[in-house]
Design brief:
Shape: globular
Largest sheet: 5 strands, antiparallel
Catalytic activity: ATP + protein L-histidine = ADP + protein N-phospho-L-histidine
CATH class of the largest domain: Alpha Beta
Strand content: 25-35%
CATH architecture of the largest domain: 2-Layer Sandwich
Helix content: 25-40%
Protein name: histidine kinase
Structural class: alpha+beta
GO molecular function: ATP binding; phosphorelay sensor kinase activity
InterPro entries: HATPase_C_sf, HATPase_dom, His_kinase_dom, HisK_dim/P_dom, HisK_dim/P_sf, PAS-like_dom_sf, PAS_4, Sig_transdc_His_kin-like_C
Enzyme class: transferase
Length: about 350
């Protein structure tokens, strides 16, 4: 049986974890997995993972066979698991590549009463993000100080604008880290100019992609200010534009329009904003079409799978929606937001 090493800190996590070798047999599990399954870890090691599926073992075996180094994490809903020496269990399983085998995260369905676990980050990822946020604070403070010193030394307007961009992005990252470490209620919405938000996103895109990508503005100049969170919208739109860059787009268009009498979900709105990010990149892979907004789902091996999930969350915070249509060479992400008058939040 292959000797697959455990994930880092596996036994310190409360999330049940098991991992297999290349042959699909369980190489090890953490204490949380053994306790949850109701048997000692020695009773688990060596068994084919699929043999624990008391419902459709062929489904689990097929899923394990599909996981490779370059595939995105795969989720199986409500898997019926049972060890011969223990009672049956039900869980949603997340399968991802681990060494030559597969890492399995088990999320018991009764841990998420009334909620769709697809909308929640796995507990292990949440803990990792908080640890990373804590470690990043000092480097960000150093970057902020360096940007301030650099700002005193440069004299031309173009260089000063770049320094201000660095300083602003460092401040935005610091605020995001604070939110991860000490979650707070959402900030009240304030009057914003959506084109100022888009211009900030374009400056980030120009700094990231340089001349490799043509950026096109297609703005409706009649758009009034409306109530929203400029930082959160910047974060969401930058994720959409960055995805287009990473999909190999040669041209990215940012389009704004006013819509009247638009229905978003079940709610009708007299005036709404339609924002579209249009690119000519590779498009959304067909196999990810139904899962593209789920956390941890990415079409790139190095991707985190968090950008689109976050963008959708920002849309919901503004009582809006995010959708897309895609084919190779033409992808459009559409963000619809009700335009609440700025005076209503003053």
């Amino acid at each position: 049986m292959p000797d697959t090493p455990p994930p880092p800190d596996a036994d310190t996590l409360t999330t049940p974890l098991a991992w297999t070798g290349a042959d699909g047999a369980i190489s090890g599990c953490n204490q949380a997995f053994a306790r949850w399954l109701g048997v000692g870890s020695r009773r688990v090691v060596g068994r084919p993972l699929a043999s624990l599926d008391a419902g459709l073992p062929e489904r689990l075996a097929d899923a394990v066979a599909r996981i490779g180094p370059d595939t995105a994490p795969l989720r199986l809903r409500r898997v019926h698991l049972r060890h011969p020496e223990a009672e049956e269990r039900f869980a949603d399983l997340w399968l991802s590549a681990h060494g030559d085998g597969v890492l399995v995260e088990a999320h018991p369905v009764d841990e998420f009463p009334g909620e769709d676990p697809a909308l929640l980050l796995p507990a292990a990822l949440t803990a990792s993000l908080k640890g990373l946020a804590h470690e990043l604070r000092n480097p960000l403070a150093g970057l902020k100080g360096a940007a301030q010193l650099l700002g005193r030394r440069v004299g031309d307007a173009a260089s000063k604008e770049l320094v201000e961009l660095i300083d602003g992005e460092v401040a935005r990252l610091a605020a995001l880290l604070d939110q991860l470490l000490t979650p707070a209620p959402p900030r009240p919405h304030a009057a914003l100019n959506i084109h100022a938000v888009l211009e900030r996103v374009l400056r980030l895109a120009e700094s990231d992609a340089g001349w490799a990508v043509r950026l096109v503005r297609d703005y409706d100049p009649s758009l009034p200010e409306f109530a929203g969170d400029a930082d959160r919208l910047t974060q969401a739109l930058w994720n959409l534009v960055r995805n287009a860059i990473e999909a190999g787009a040669g041209t990215i268009s940012l389009r704004t329009r006013v819509e009247h009498g638009l229905r978003i979900g079940e709610q009708a709105h007299p005036v709404a904003l339609r924002m579209e990010i249009v690119d000519d990149g590779r498009g959304v892979p067909e196999e990810l079409a139904e899962r593209v907004f789920l956390p941890l789902v990415s079409g790139r091996a190095e991707g985190t799978g968090l950008g689109l999930a976050l963008a959708q969350q920002v849309a919901r915070e503004h009582r809006g929606s995010l959708a897309y249509r895609s084919r190779p060479g033409h992808t459009v992400f559409t963000l619809l937001l009700p335009m609440v008058a700025a005076e209503a939040v003053a």
